[in-house]
Every structure is written in structure tokens, then in C-alpha cells.
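Render this sequence as a predicted structure.
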Amino acid sequence: MSAVFFYAMKDVGKNRRAFIFITIAIALSTANIIIINGFMDGIIDDLIERTLESSSGHLNIYPNEQDRYIEGLGVKEKKLENIEGVVAYSPRITAGGAISYKEKSKSIKVLALEPSKENRVTTLLGKIDSGETLKVSDRDSILISYRVAEDLKMKNGDEATIVFENGNTKVFKIKGILRTGTTMDTNTVVINFEVAQEQLALNNKASIILVKLSDIALSGQYKNKISQELGVRKIKEWKQEVESILSTAGTMKEISAVINAVGLFASAVAVGVILYINVLHKRRQTGIMKAIGMKDFQILSIYIIEAIIIGTVGVMIGDALGYAGTKYLENHPFTDPILGSMSPRFYPYLLYDASLVTMLAVILASMYPALVAGRMNIIKAIWGT
């Protein structure tokens, strides 16, 4: 086998142009896989993190199927306070309505919460694009999403009228504009919990209770415990809340797989074609090697080893390019008007996956020309026919 390795190394060194061309193709293909997969992972992770930061607790308590609201909110809050492992909770009320400013109006989703409790569970009230956040004492102030502000041409300090779903109306002053990077940005208006209770004639009720645990990994265990303690049946873990995002992630992964497959196919074709041409040009040398005693398997091994050598160099360069490209884009994110900043994220497994897949493609591409070389007839090979 030492002769096989020696000849493979010498052959790679003689064909520098082919070596450089194949190496570039493999490197670009590997870097492409790393950057695209890193970008997909970055978008998905950002969406999940933003959803958890703004819209979900580790566990979310909902009304029973036949009810619109959670009844007996005060009792349930006291029980939550006595459950060891529950760090914080935040009740919310959601309702429909419309907001009017001057001669324009827009349908909205009213989100009512208690700032002091909400801040212990999520960072929603900290996602202020401009203005100030909502405080406990702000009974006549609201926060609006930036899309609502843009649609109605409103700014901080303006006064707008909210018509609640039950027909009640109230004038509020816009204190701040939110930008969460989630679907909340579409049409959400945030108001004080007590004000919503008064306007919607709700007493001791909530639409949802967000619960924060000491350890997010315990959400499955605490789901049953809280259900028994509070006498509620509908509780969702955070994983269930991001199912739609994970579903979208699956589609995005399929798209990226197609893009990666195109790049891999291009590099595999380059490897296969150049090695095949190399085999044809060296028929006489192949015949001589067989004549001096080399077996078919050894001839085949030479070209596979050549492919492995070239593939290894190409993959190493591709890994470096992919890492550098991912880190650069991570520090220079793209900006989307709806989702906000988007950037890839680098994880070590991206290198392993890209390297393994690319090497397998290169080895498979080398099999046919290697088999052709190994099966050559000695006489025809020596005569170059």
C-alpha cells in the first residue's frame, strides 16, 4: 500500500491545475453548506428566542376548552406563589378592538398585562423602539407596535382612541413604540391590566397566565403538577408554543438541502470528470503498473486516495471559508422590515456535517473513474487504445 500512497501523492502533484480547480469547487461547496445551514439555524433560533422573550413563558396556562377566560385568577396566583420551582407568573388579557387617530383607524389586538409581573417573566416591555416603556401607574398610556404607528402615522405623545370589542371607548396617550421581531408587531397595542379589566368588565379573570420556572427543562414535569394544583386542564409547554416556527424551520431546511445538493452535485461532477479524464490520459501508465504486478484493487485505490487527498484539502479550505463567512455575517446581520435583524449562527456541528457530506460526495464521484482504471485491459492500456 506504500506504493499506492506514493503514486497517488505524485499524481496529485503533477496535475496542479486540475488539483487547484477541484479544490476550489470542493471548498466553495463546503463553505456554501456551512453558511446556508448556519443562516437557517440563526433565523430559526432568533424566532424561537424572540417568541419566548415576548410571547411565552416556560409554561402557559389557558382557559378550559369551553371557556374564554381563566376564572378565579386571584386564587390561582396564590397557588402559583406556593409552588416551589415557580419563579414568576404574569396574567394577560387579550381582546379585539380598533384604534383611531385623526381620520384613520385600524383593527388591533389589545394585550393587557401587569408591568411588574410581566417584567419577571418576559422582556416584552423592554423592546422599545422609541419612547418609554409602560409602568404600573400608566393607566392612560399605551404602547403600540411599530407597524400600527407606521400605518396610522402616529408618534410618541399623540393621543388615540381605542374602541374595545364590547363597544367601550377610551382615549390613551402613546408612551412608546414596540418592535419585537415577532407577529406581535403586526397590530398589537399594550395597555395596563387593570384598565382592560374595567373597560371589558372582567373581574378576577385572565386570557392566559405565563409561568416562569427555575429551570426550563422542568416544564414537562411541572405541567402536570400545576394542572393538579390549579385545577386547570389546558397547559402548554414552551415547545408547543413554537411548533409553528419549528414547522416553518422544517420547510426552510428542505429548501437549504436542495441548495446544498446543487452545490455538492457541481463539485462531485467536477471531481468525477477530471479524474475520468486523468484516467484516460494515463492509460499507458496504468497498463505498465499492471504489468509490473499491481492488482486491480491497488489501481482503483490510487484514484480513490487521490480523491481523498484533494477532498481533504478542499474541505479544510472550505471549513475555513465557511467559518469566516458565517462569523462575518453574524457580525454584519441583514435587516428585515418585519423580522428585524437576521444573521447566521456558527455551531461546531456545521463543520462536521459539511465536511462529512462533502467527503462522501467526493469519494462517490471518484468511484466510477477508479473502477474504469482498475478494470483496464493490460495490453490495450499499454497501447493506449
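Summary. Residues 275 and 369 are 6 Å apart (CA to CA). Residues 2-51+244-383 form one domain.
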